[in-house]
Amino acid sequence: LSYFPGEEEVLFMLGSIFRLVNIDQDDRGIWIVRLTLCNNSDPDLQAVFDYMKNQYGNGETTILSLGFILAQMGKYDEAEKYYRRLLKERNPTDYEDISACYHNFGNLFDDKGDYQSSLDWHHKALESMIKIFKSDDSRIATSFNSIAAVHSKMNNYDEALDCYLKALKIWKQALGEEHPNIGQCLSNIAGIYQMYGKSSDALEYLQKALIIYQ
Q1: pLDDT of the residue at 11
Q2: Which of 98, 123, 141, 213 has the fewest C-beta atoms lying within 10 Å of its C-beta?
């Protein structure tokens, strides 16, 4: 199979994952990389798969997940094409995917610095989520939190504080008092109070956040 006579080759399937064992340099100055093939029972590999599923969904490649990954890579124009394709080809009853697409659009324009467009998409996402999810669903809290973050970047501190407080209330109902999302939200609220010059209120919320992080 090799172009070079006498060369020994090992073929492996596309998508195989290897663990790096070590890298050495021999007496001739040639670098030798030693790898070992991972298998499905490898605990570290399983942890990677679990992380990817949590980040990108159930492991299936969808238009939504492709757009999300492209946006994470900073390829915003390509991501936007996938999101618009999803909205164009969607089944009108795919409410959750539509809401998620609106939300991802909001994040995309936030990353691009187009905050007004980001707010427009995030509000569409929130309106959609309120219609299909229970009032204490954590996804609604995430939507409020995203809107708050954009308002904060636009120096709209009243609107930001209002949305952070709504997110905090829902997250407490959905996730409990000690979830990391609660700590982050408390820190964000502290930041808003700091911008108001209300140092005592900011300190109060930071102390609450610190209790969760400890």
Answers
A1: 67
A2: 213
In a domain, 102, yes or no: no
**Paired tokens of 100:** 């998620």
Mean per-residue pLDDT, 160-178 = 95
CATH number at residue 186: 1.25.40.10
Structural domain containing residue 212: 147-214
Residue 119 has pLDDT above 80, yes or no: yes
Position 195 in a domain? yes
pTM: 0.72
- Note the pLDDT of residue 33: 83
Work out the burial of residue 119: count CB atoms within 10 Å of its CB; fewer than 13 is exposed, 13-18 middle, 19 or more buried: buried
Mention every residue, 6+ apart, whose C-beta is less than 8 A from residue 136. Answer: 170, 173, 174
- Residue of 142, 58, 56 lying closest to 99 (CA atoms): 142
User: Quick check: 133 and 139 in contact, CB under 8 A?
Assistant: yes
